[in-house]
């Protein structure tokens, strides 16, 4: 298949997507309807609303096309698969920073990682960093806060 993907997929990801496509091409038409596509997306770990699905379909189709062949399905899924891998890497990074494994990154954790990176920071710097990363403002840096911060535009 010619590579028109904006993001490179691993061989394992390509096979996972092919398997999902074939499993949910319920009428063996060589294309996925919106319903079949939603089932395929869920099977590879992407819960999606109907509105999100149609928005996603429009990223790879022209006009009112609502059925996708394998190539367009892979083109649509490549960025989502890359994001999924990115989230897994961020989760591992969070666990490394969370030295006491309590599910939160503390000011002490931030100070320790900054020292490892060779950065000398003041108490005020630590408070500023923690406030910036604590996206929900509850006083704790959770995994969700960390991921939201890391995915936010700079």
UniProtKB/TrEMBL annotation:
<dbReference type="InterPro" id="IPR018247">
    <property type="entry name" value="EF_Hand_1_Ca_BS"/>
</dbReference>
<dbReference type="GO" id="GO:0005509">
    <property type="term" value="F:calcium ion binding"/>
</dbReference>
<dbReference type="GO" id="GO:0016460">
    <property type="term" value="C:myosin II complex"/>
</dbReference>
<feature type="domain" description="EF-hand">
    <location>
        <begin position="85"/>
        <end position="120"/>
    </location>
</feature>
<protein>
    <submittedName>
        <fullName>Calmodulin</fullName>
    </submittedName>
</protein>
<dbReference type="InterPro" id="IPR050230">
    <property type="entry name" value="CALM/Myosin/TropC-like"/>
</dbReference>
<dbReference type="Pfam" id="PF13499">
    <property type="entry name" value="EF-hand_7"/>
</dbReference>
<feature type="domain" description="EF-hand">
    <location>
        <begin position="121"/>
        <end position="154"/>
    </location>
</feature>
<keyword id="KW-0677">Repeat</keyword>
<dbReference type="InterPro" id="IPR002048">
    <property type="entry name" value="EF_hand_dom"/>
</dbReference>
<dbReference type="InterPro" id="IPR011992">
    <property type="entry name" value="EF-hand-dom_pair"/>
</dbReference>
<feature type="domain" description="EF-hand">
    <location>
        <begin position="12"/>
        <end position="47"/>
    </location>
</feature>
<keyword id="KW-0106">Calcium</keyword>
């Amino acid at each position: 298949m010619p590579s028109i993907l904006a993001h490179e997929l691993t061989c394992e990801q390509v096979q996972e997507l092919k398997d999902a496509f074939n499993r949910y091409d319920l009428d063996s038409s060589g294309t996925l309807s919106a319903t079949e596509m939603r089932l395929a997306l869920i099977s590879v770990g992407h819960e999606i609303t109907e509105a999100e699905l149609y928005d996603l379909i429009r990223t790879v189709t022209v006009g009112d096309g609502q059925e996708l062949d394998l190539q367009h399905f892979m083109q649509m899924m490549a960025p989502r698969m890359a994001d999924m891998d990115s989230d897994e890497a961020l989760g591992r990074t969070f666990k490394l920073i969370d030295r006491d494994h309590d599910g939160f990154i503390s000011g002490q954790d931030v100070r320790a990682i900054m020292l490892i990176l060779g950065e000398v920071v003041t108490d005020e710097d630590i408070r500023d960093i923690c406030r910036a990363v604590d996206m929900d403002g509850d006083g704790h840096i959770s995994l969700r806060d960390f991921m939201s911060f890391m995915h936010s535009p700079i």
